[in-house]
Amino acid sequence: MKEVLYKFFKYLFFIYFMKCFYCEKDAIVRIPYSKLWLCKDHYIEYIQRRVLETIKRYKLIKKGQKILVGVSGGKDSTSLYHMLLNIKDKIDFELIGLHINLGIYDFSKKSLEVIKNFSKEYNTEFIILDSKEIIGAYLPETLIKLGAKILPNYKVKYIRPACSICGSLKRYILNIIANELNVDYIALGHHMDDLLPYIIKNFFLQDLHSISKLGPKTEKIDSLVGRIRPLYEISEEEIKLYAKLSGIPYLEDQCPFKYGSKRIETKIREFLDKMEKENPGFKISLARAIARNIKFYEKEEEIKLNKCKYCGMPTSKDICEFCRITKRAFGEPKGLYVKEKISEILKGIK
Ligand code: SF4
Ligand code: ZN
Ligand code: ZN
Fold first, then answer.
1. Which one of 102, 253, 268, 322 counts the least CB within 10 Å of its CB?
2. CB neighbour list of residue 8: distance below 8 Å, 6 or more residues apart
3. Which helix (DSSP H) or strand (DSSP E) does residue 107 occupy?
């Protein structure tokens, strides 16, 4: 107890008396691994600089490239979009923000509000698409058509988690849009605390090939557009603080279909956080070491990709995941229909 009180007062003392490393303002945050005390403005600048360094270190974006960001309205993707918006002129790339309305009750309504507010505040345009217009149904209806039961507390009873269905649908739609818009990469809001536990879990399970897809950059395969992760070296705490201090609109509510925790990942994350506390900078060193060695995890012979017999998109089976899900839900595979629909909608926006 004595020790806790000592630490608390010591922290208060520093917060009260410490000045920012870069200016005369009072510091409001300390970055343990770089031993820096920073004011609000310099913290925002510091995080943006680290993202810029990540982009340069892993050669994520080159001058003149077109980058698509799917912005859900949550803190990670909204912060990522805000960071890229602020650093895009330093590299000179084109940034496209996209929001897909999944129709998940009030959660989606609030998310859309956030996107509209962001758009107004920063004078930036988003492409806003509606999943009902694209597929013919919002996510809850799609889940019900698949045979899922949605309980009053939004728990989804189905053979697969709601997120797994949602993820497959979103990935397909995002990829079609990326191809239509001819973008070079899709930027994802995955941060270090999302990625490291997942990578380590895959290592425990010796699913080494999956690790190769979780690094800072995954190149294009066939018509599957490449992915980049500019937040690869940024922690969740840092993003939370960035979102708060920069004052960007974002939604704190969690999607009602997201429940339960992934136990193994949570345990690994707790361990990594403990290591970080005892050895500041541990997580970044680990993330860099993994990125350096990621090529060793790639399979020598890439899994042979077929073309989906309905929509022609690359798949390891004979029917792609999207066509399989939509065939089961609506009685017909919707891949081709969705491709045409998106092309038609985007032509109207351009
Ligand atoms: Fe979809 Fe799951 Fe994200 Fe909700 S939490 S939007 S269901 S992936
Ligand atoms: Zn300062
Ligand atoms: Zn298909």
1. 253
2. none
3. helix 105-122
- The pTM (predicted TM-score) of the whole model is 0.93
Domain assignment of residue 306, yes or no? yes
pLDDT digit string (tens) for the chain, length 350 residues: 667 776 676 666 666 678 999 998 999 999 998 889 999 999 999 999 999 999 999 999 999 999 999 999 999 999 999 999 999 999 999 999 999 999 999 999 999 999 999 999 999 999 999 999 999 999 999 999 999 999 999 999 999 999 999 999 999 999 999 999 999 999 999 999 999 999 999 999 999 999 999 999 999 998 999 999 999 999 999 999 999 999 999 999 999 998 766 789 999 999 999 999 999 999 999 999 999 999 888 776 666 789 999 999 999 899 999 999 999 999 999 999 999 999 999 998 76
Number of folded domains that form the chain: 1
What CATH number is given to the structural domain containing 289? Answer: 3.40.50.620
What Cα–Cα distance (Å) separates residue 182 from each residue in 19, 38, 101, 144, 322?
47, 40, 22, 34, 21
Say whether 227 sits in a helix, a strand or coil.
strand
Atom number, ligand 1, closest to the C-alpha of residue 255:
4
Ligand 1 pocket member 166 (CB < 6 A): yes
- Tell me, yes or no, whether 266 lies in a domain: yes
Q: Determine whether the shortest distance from the Cβ of 319 to ligand 1 is under 6 A.
A: no
Tell how far the Cα of 339 is from the centroid of ligand 1, in angstroms. Answer: 22
Nearest CA to ligand 1 atom 5: 258
Give me 308's structure tokens.
């989906």
Asked if the structure places residue 7 within a domain, the reply is: no
Q: Is 167 in the pocket of ligand 1 (CB under 6 A)?
A: yes
